[in-house]
Amino acid sequence: MTFKFARPLAWLLLAFIIFVTVSPIGERPNTVTMVDVDRAVAYLLLGFAFALAYPKQWKMVAMLLIVGAFAIEWLQYFSPTRHPRLHDASVKAMGTALGLLAGWVINRWRETKAPNPIPFTER
Length: 123
Hints:
Strand content: under 5%
Protein name: VanZ family protein
Organism: Rhizobium esperanzae
Largest sheet: none
Transmembrane segments: 40-55, 60-77
Structural class: mainly alpha
Keywords: Membrane, Transmembrane, Transmembrane helix
Order of helices and strands: HHHH
């Protein structure tokens, strides 16, 4: 069973991240933290939401999101006010991995707490 809000939240987060990454630098939201912290937290939340949304496909989700972090950073080549950097993509990929790991741990914990429909003697 997935969290009902996880799928729409995951896709909305992805759309927001793509918009913020590719839009002109002036449209980027201002925050009080360092830019690398912003990147890591945004992608951590993205990885976490996708891990909760698609618990059975976590390997495919992990591969797509980590590769996607580099691909989204590469999209900045098409924006004249942005500049893609390998460091930025690495921070994003690391945040994604940590979010996916946290989601995987929660999914495993939920599996152990869920009632098993198969009788214990038949497992």
